[in-house]
Design goal:
Blueprint (H helix, E strand, L loop, with lengths): L8 H5 L1 H17 L13 H15 L11 H5 L6 H17 L4 H11 L3 H4 L3
Helix pairs in contact: 2-3, 2-5, 5-6
Length: 123
Amino acid sequence: MSQTQTQTLFEKLGGRPAVETVVKDFYRRVLNDPHLSGFFENVDMDHQTRQQIAFLTAALGGPDNYRGRNMKDAHAHLGITEFHFDKVAGHLVDTLKAAGVPQADIDAVVELVAPLKADVVSA
């Protein structure tokens, strides 16, 4: 990569192996949170993890292999509140910090995720 090209967040974070690690740790945290774990009852977490890896990969500027529903349709029936969204976002930030991601890159990820609140929150 030439010095004039900038790396995507996907590349900065370490590509697919790093995204896989982050997503798995993220879901470990979410599933251990009593405020959030109920949303994942009867959810195939292997499938959910694969979908999240694909979604996050595309959102971070990597290959776009996400074939899931849009965020609004995927979350409309769940009754997610701002409290829940903020808890999930907090777990994402904590996961990125634990993975050693620099704060500037964490801030950039938060900027990508924050606009999703309007589509995810329905209660």
